[in-house]
Design brief:
Length: 327
């Protein structure tokens, strides 16, 4: 269906060098690529993979925080958390829509998530054990998401870039509400400070893993950067995040759980200790504490929603028939 992008000057359906060069020229000239434009199949597939995984992450990401809505300590906290979780659902919907413009259906993407074929962010396979986790997730997880997503506002694919602009504005509010929760706890009683520190200890390393494997092990980065889907490498964004977060932790009087964290004058950034990549891959491959629960919850939501999808489809079919009869 999208093969119009693969037709060479002689009418063949091969991706000719001429076609690939012309496409790269558009990318290098910072032109936005739109859904009906010719594009290499690899570019389309990379976007479907990344946007699909991103959409799944937003939707699965509602679960750890949704777990605390009924237990928020005040009406103000409950209202803010409820709004945040709803925002994440909205982000998922923009992203599914952006992926759909590339010829993949929501059903297909959901089936891939439920069968384990499509990934979602490793971070959402960790449990939320205390109220402080609502603060830490906003501060660190949304903070890491913003660091990764601001450059995506300049992604070469128009629908993804445009969706990211609104998403980043909302993530920025989420980050601040999270930091404010942690600040409140850090200035509270000893129990509250301990709860904040324990939460930080558990979420720091998984937050660093959100940026993906080291550049040398990142299968897709080089090509994605050439196509200007990604603008920075995984390690470059991780470094920016660490450099921005260390002073925030210092301001709170909390300790980041990394004894090797040290300012490096020469590079103008912090050095950090080794990341446990075995843990990362274990979680990515489905063996984190919460993987099975998360997929089970998504499957239940999808199955429970079947009647809504069927009713909406029946309504659409009936409307179409009425319109045809009126013509
Ligand atoms: N978890 O070659 P690379 C959020 C996979 S949104 C799981 O480096 P790439 C908002 C990767 O897919 C968080 N898998 O891959 C929120 C690939 O596997 P594949 C999500 C990971 O694509 C806040 C393989 O490893 N954000 O938090 C992870 O060039 C609070 C090799 O990796 C996005 O998705 C991981 N952490 O770079 C919601 C942003 N890292 O596909 C609720 C958009 C890597 O070959 C509450 N995505 N993998 O089977 C991206 O920027 C990129 O896709 C990266 C990975 C940077 C995540």
């Amino acid at each position: 269906m999208y093969s119009q992008g693969l037709i060479g000057a002689d009418g063949s359906t091969e991706e000719t060098q001429e076609f690939l060069d012309a496409f790269q020229k558009r990318i290098d000239a910072e032109e936005k690529i739109e859904p009906n434009d010719p594009m290499p199949e690899g570019y389309r597939r990379t976007l479907v993979r990344q946007i699909g995984q991103h959409a799944h992450s937003e939707i699965v990401g509602m679960l750890p925080e949704g777990n605390w809505i009924t237990r928020a300590p005040s009406l103000r906290r409950k209202a803010a958390l409820l709004a945040k979780v709803q925002d994440e659902g909205g982000h998922g919907l923009y992203l599914y829509s952006a992926a759909e413009t590339l010829g993949v259906s929501r059903e297909q993407m959901t089936e891939e998530l439920l069968s384990g074929k499509a990934k979602y962010s490793s971070i959402f396979n960790y449990p939320t054990l205390s109220w402080a986790d609502m603060g830490t997730i906003g501060w660190l997880v949304d903070g890491a998401a913003i660091m990764n997503q601001i450059p995506l506002c300049r992604c070469s694919f128009g629908p993804y870039a445009r969706a990211m602009i609104r998403v980043c504005k909302e993530e920025s509010f989420h980050q601040r509400q999270g930091y404010e929760i942690v600040m409140y706890l850090a200035r509270g009683t000893k129990e509250q400070r301990d709860m904040a520190q324990d939460s930080l200890n558990r979420w720091w390393w998984p937050s660093l893993m959100m940026f993906g494997p080291h550049d040398a092990d990142s299968a897709h980065s080089e090509q994605s950067m050439e196509w200007k889907i990604k603008r920075f490498s995984n390690d470059a964004l991780r470094q920016k995040f660490i450099d921005a977060t260390v002073p925030q932790a210092e301001f709170l009087g909390l300790t980041l759980p990394d004894p090797d964290l040290k300012w490096n004058d020469e590079k103008g950034g912090y050095d950090h200790g080794p990341i446990d990549w075995d843990e990362f891959w274990r979680v990515v491959k489905g063996d984190g504490v919460m993987n099975r629960d998360r997929v089970k919850a998504r499957k239940k939501a999808w199955d429970d929603g079947a009647w809504v999808r069927e009713a909406a489809l029946a309504h659409a079919v009936k409307r179409e028939a009425r319109m045809q009869a009126a013509e």
